[in-house]
Specification:
The chain is an all-alpha fold. The chain is built from two helices and no strands. The protein has one domain.
Length: about 160
Amino acid sequence: MDLNFTLIGQLITFIIFVWFTMKYVWPPLVKALEDRRQQIADGLAAAEKGRHALADAKVEIQAQLEEGKKQAADIIDHANKRAQKIIEESKITAREEGERLLALAKAEIQQEFNAAKEDLLQQVSALAVAGAEKIIRQSVDREASNDLVKDIIAGV
């Protein structure tokens, strides 16, 4: 009977051990496992969310790069057009300035021509007068000169 009594004692001890484990040990273990499972699930969800955010960011970055390239091309095109416009304006300004300088040079040349012409006329008239004086002294006598002067005075 000792064997049966020992067996019954072990059975009672085992039942008490199972009850104690189920009452005090098992719930914290289940709670810790559940918390760990929840943390893993949250981590996986965050990783998936991060993966989607990364994919979205890549798409957005690609779109911004394309937009930046387009803006850069537009800026370069605008700069080229502006440069062409400035070149054309410079050509027009240079042409107008050249025409103005040409007209100024022509006017100056005309003034110098007129001054030279006037100077030549004065020199020619001085030479003519000097030549006429020499001719008159040699070929005209006093009476003819007096008659000529009287005719000129009478004509005035």
